[in-house]
Design goal:
The chain has 211 residues and is α/β, with parallel strands linked by helices. The chain has a single domain, classed as P-loop containing nucleotide triphosphate hydrolases (Rossmann fold, 3-Layer(aba) Sandwich), CATH 3.40.50. The protein contains nine helices and five strands, in the order βαβααααβαβααβα. The protein has helices spanning 17-28, 36-45, 49-54, 63-73, 87-104, 114-120, 135-146, 150-172, 193-206, and strands at 6-11, 32-33, 107-110, 126-132, 184-187. Strands 2-3-1-4-5 form a five-stranded parallel sheet, sandwiched between helices. The chain is globular and about 50 Å long.
Length: 211
Amino acid sequence: MADKYVITIDRLYGSGGRIMGRRLSEKLGIPFYDEEILKMASEESAVSESLFRLNDEKAGTNLFFRAVGGLHSSLEEPSVDDDVASPENLFRFQAKMIRRVAAEQSCIIMGRCADFVLEAAGTENLVRLFVYADITTCIRRVIEVDGVDEKEALRRVNRISKQRRDYYKYYTGRDWEDMANYDLPVNTSTLELDPAVELTREYLRLRGIDA
């Protein structure tokens, strides 16, 4: 059985991926990192946490970075020079924190291209999930969780999913919804979240991980 492992979760907005990640964390007894990564990156960089939040899971606008540098520059050590607060450098600080927590312990890391960052770092026993659902299910969950009407729920699903899609492409050069990037796609249209957690645990056991 694997002594240490790391689970990354990418998710469509409204799919329940964050809730599923927290429940999986409780079942497995391992830490769950989501916005905690922003706080850690802020402390490491001495850049305001609000600035990290402002740029959180949003693509940058540097056309040169997008065209030729993004894929490699994303994985470099962060700078402490004049560009310390650029979106690209803030991403590098987050990537550094992701590598750090993954090296220290078994954990679950939500979003922020963690699958790409850790794959590039050669992290062992890396399990990459993509949680998704059909549009009807996503809208229903957003209505329930966010307390908005159907029209606003649809707007949020479309806007935030596009934002995540663009962010992932900008920093990894990959297509976010290409299932070849992941080990286990989980469709929460056909499974409620607790059975989806159990499905994931069974997959971990098949991978030789004590879940």
